Amino acid sequence: MNIGLFGYGKMGKMIEQIAQKRGHSIVAKIDDASQPIDYKSMDVAIDFSTPESAFGNITNCFKNGVPVICGTTGWLERYAEAVEICNDNKGGFIYASNFSLGVNIFFELNAQLAKMMANLEEYKVSMEEIHHTQKLDAPSGTAITLAEGIIENTPYEKWKLEESGDKTIPIKSIREGMVPGTHSIAYESAVDKIEIKHEAHNREGFALGAVIASEWIAGKSGIFSMKDVLNLS
Ligand SMILES: NC(=O)C1=CN([C@@H]2O[C@H](COP(=O)(O)OP(=O)(O)OC[C@H]3O[C@@H](n4cnc5c(N)ncnc54)[C@H](OP(=O)(O)O)[C@@H]3O)[C@@H](O)[C@H]2O)C=CC1
Ligand SMILES: O=C(O)C1=N[C@H](C(=O)O)C[C@H](O)C1
């Protein structure tokens, strides 16, 4: 498959290595808005760029008939608009805040645990995410997906950075060193604490998931998720 990479930073470079090992070719490495782009050479585009550039990159791909796998976080206020442009162009699109198999299993575990805790008022939920100091957005996209999983299954109504409240999930974002991504969720009562945690050891799991998603979307049109790709629940 011929892959165009939008964003050739930490993730773009890791995806290049994994894609080549799986027999794919990287036909474009786009790292800034002024680069000329040959969309015709691409079977699929993989975007791991920046919160500011992702929407433009993705929607230009749809307009040029290229399906998109997007892992960039921090731009989701325009997700619905991107979906509309994708559908108008009969394109293919997968966005995931986290492409790793482990985190997608963790998303399912989080939803199951939230269902079990939904009526136990003595337990208060809180979340923490830790990432490297170069990360531009907070909270992480993964933390937002986890919070949404709790909101869907409990009386909690919203999340907020640091701030707790009756129906508000507090999320603590820590930026330190080179941490690839650690997420934990705790339910705490006066007598005990239940905690689940996912810790990425490196970026390989994210990159492999994105390449598997790009193989999966070949020949399909529509809006999909990693649940479809991984056949989860
Ligand atoms: N969904 C998932 O599984 C994961 C998601 N992510 C997300 O992916 C994104 C990228 O992460 P990461 O690789 O660590 O970040 P990096 O900062 O290492 O890479 C981003 C790259 O995008 C480039 N860029 C800037 N402007 C544009 C543009 N207009 N078009 C294309 N590329 C551009 C940057 O170039 P320059 O430095 O010159 O500005 C940089 O090389 C983040 O949003 C992060 O949260 C990360 C890991 C996993
Ligand atoms: O910026 C990162 O590095 C990561 N970003 C994603 C997020 O915001 O959740 C996924 C992963 O945690 C690494």
From TrEMBL:
InterPro entries: DapB_C (IPR022663), DapB_N (IPR000846), DHDPR_bac (IPR023940), NAD(P)-bd_dom_sf (IPR036291). One of its GO terms (biological process) is lysine biosynthetic process via diaminopimelate. (S)-2,3,4,5-tetrahydrodipicolinate binds at H132, G141, T142. It is an enzyme of class 1 (oxidoreductase). Catalyzes the conversion of 4-hydroxy-tetrahydrodipicolinate (HTPA) to tetrahydrodipicolinate. Homotetramer. Residues 102-230 form the Dihydrodipicolinate reductase C-terminal domain. The active site is at H131, K135. Transmembrane segments: none annotated. This is 4-hydroxy-tetrahydrodipicolinate reductase. Residues 1-99 form the Dihydrodipicolinate reductase N-terminal domain. Pathway: Amino-acid biosynthesis; L-lysine biosynthesis via DAP pathway; (S)-tetrahydrodipicolinate from L-aspartate: step 4/4. One of its GO terms (cellular component) is cytosol. It comes from Flagellimonas zhangzhouensis. It is found in: Cytoplasm. NAD(+) binds at D32, G71, T72, T73, A96, S97, N98, F99. GO terms for molecular function: 4-hydroxy-tetrahydrodipicolinate reductase; NAD binding; NADP binding; oxidoreductase activity, acting on CH or CH2 groups, NAD or NADP as acceptor. NCBIfam families: dapB (TIGR00036). It catalyses: (S)-2,3,4,5-tetrahydrodipicolinate + NAD(+) + H2O = (2S,4S)-4-hydroxy-2,3,4,5-tetrahydrodipicolinate + NADH + H(+); (S)-2,3,4,5-tetrahydrodipicolinate + NADP(+) + H2O = (2S,4S)-4-hydroxy-2,3,4,5-tetrahydrodipicolinate + NADPH + H(+). Belongs to the DapB family. HAMAP family: DapB (MF_00102). Coiled coil: none annotated. Keywords: Amino-acid biosynthesis, Cytoplasm, Diaminopimelate biosynthesis, Lysine biosynthesis, NAD, NADP, Oxidoreductase. Its EC number is 1.17.1.8.
